[in-house]
Amino acid sequence: MMRHEPRVVAGLLAGLATIVVALPLGRLFDEAPWALPSVIGVAVVAGTGMLLRSLTTHAGLVVLGQAAAASLYLLVTQVGETTVFGVVPTPETLTALLDHFEQAQDTITRYAAPAPATPGITVMLVVIIVVVALAVDMASATAASPSVAGLPLLSLFLVSAANSGGSMHWAWFLAGAGLWLAMVVHQSDVDLHGWATSVPRMARGDGEDSAGRSHRWQAARLGAFALVAAVAAATFVPHLPTRYVLDGLGRSQGGATTGSGVRLATALDLRRSLESPSEAPVLTYTSSSPTPGPLRVAVVEDFSDGLGRMRSDAPEPVEGFSAPDPTLRLPGNVVGERRTMVVESNGVAAPQLPLPSLVSSVDTGGIAWALGDDGTAAVQRTPGTYSATYTELAPEEEDFDQPTGEPIDPLAQSDSYLTLDPGSAQEIGDLVDEVVPHDATPLRSAQAIQEYLRGSEFTYSLDLPSSQGRDPIVAFLDHKTGYCQQFAVTMTLMARARGIPARVAVGFLPGSLSSGDERVVQVSDAHAWPELYFEGVGWTRFEPTPGSRAASTPGYTIDTSDATAGTDTSTSSDETTSSSTRPDDQQEDVAVPEAATAPDEGRPAWVTALLWLLGIAAVLAIMPLSALVARRRSRRSAVDDAERVEREWHELITQLDDLGLRPPVGATPRQTGAWLSRRLHLEGEPQQQLDHVVATLERARYAPPGADLPDISHEVGGVVDEVRSGRQRSRQVRSVLWPQDGVDAWRAFGRSLLRRLPRRR
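Given the sequence above, the corresponding structure tokens read:
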């Protein structure tokens, strides 16, 4: 039986590189149950590839066999309970896989890193790592193209780098890059030895070893230059906004990202970032209101999964957007006062834009924006400063129950604002019947709910008791411990149980006074509060969160008909939150920050794109410019015309070599010219230029010393241009971007530096 090459070393390097690049994923999750099955899966792929390569040279059969073995492994280990005999998939197998991936997506978008390692996360990571292992092994070992294997490895590495919420240790990159370079070097050795054994050896000795060392040294220089160029590009080229592979994990665990914007996460679950709140200011502004309310960013209306998911119904931002005045729908008897806010520094990243309720106009400095019916705004890019005009209502109790001819919000009575969470509907309904009098008006019902949640039974804390998989609201009602989002969601659901349309608004507390009338909003001022809809006044804010971790409590939310109603809420009725004046041990609600651009200050997007293009062009121009300078310097340093002509001839030969044409070794100039003419079928002006170059070189070599010789650099350039026009596009690009004269120039520069270094004695 014919024995084929199994390529054991290439397979082992591919598997090891995949495992090393996957290891940083452990930083994204609190546990790593996926690690062992992933390593075994990589071993299955590598071992199957070695076995199949030893049996056949057909790459397609090898890849199909590896894919079949990997699929069988994933079926048995990840969804084996849904298969027949453990190996035959069923319709339930596909359903289980879809459920796992849906759970993984929910975990990723819901939690900040480190997220819980749910079963869905485990299945997803094992599948991803095994697929990457298959791609790397196929490229490196089966197709003998390890350079291509760097793409799947880089993709897997970027999942960790982009979602870890902070900088990764350089050792992770060095380990992955080192193994990839080892794969490239190994393949180069294989190619070199194959070439060396296919041609006669010219002499005995260590010629093959010398060639191998030279080959490796060139590869090492190339890798070093690539790393230096990458570091230089990352240092000097302006950075574009960070983008994440999946929404949710790209968050700083500490609660903020210094020097960058923050953005409230999609899911209303802040606890993992609350444990380490940041004091970094994200908004400074002044307001004409003595006690401004919180600043809205998004709303939550669907609680079918417990705490809900944020959204905004703001349309696509457009330039010159004009918002309709929301007070035009209010009854004339409702008292309101026009207020203004001027934001001097904004660190909340686009598309989110913190605004108060009932905004009538916003000046973003020309940046496209839009305002939704729910009062949330969207901007095309982050404005460094902006201003807004809004209305601050002061309704009386009798205003709430007065019906209007046309609804203030026609969509308020829709199911989206009245639906309960199925997981807690029974408990919420029973609690409302117990807390709220049956004959209470909608306003009295809302006041009773708020009073109950602000009562002494409930405790504000970030340390929640274990819910053991129960619905989060049911668990909150049981242990009565939570922070703003639990209080806000619970009041919203209780109000819905009494037929009051309700939703949760998410944004920031009004911040603290720093100097004069300037207010500072910190990342730790993120907050959630309920908004209830009443026909007489529209959407109104309530504040069930107890203590100083709430905004000022509106007067209409307190039942003044009962002397005891305000005893528990009076402590916060006149308070505004101050991040700088809280006790050090007071835990806080914070935004889940997402690294983003610093305040844009109105810089157009085309400027950033242009800077990127200029930076890339500068990096690509390094070697061509180096070659051009080296050639000119070489010609100018010639002692006479004869030496100058020799150097111009050398330029011709090296540039032809860059284009893949290497004249016979030892040929005379005339023989070289004839060879080029035959090979390239030159005629007309290019042939005349080549003849002139050859004739001038012969004169330089055989004429008396000091002879006056013409400059042939123009003719050399003409011949090179003619040759380049007939070569493959890849050869043309390579000859321009990586000319040998440029490589030689940098090699000489490196050697000169080494000679200047002090030597040991």
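DSSP finds 22 helices and 15 strands in the chain. Try to locate this feature in the token string yourself.
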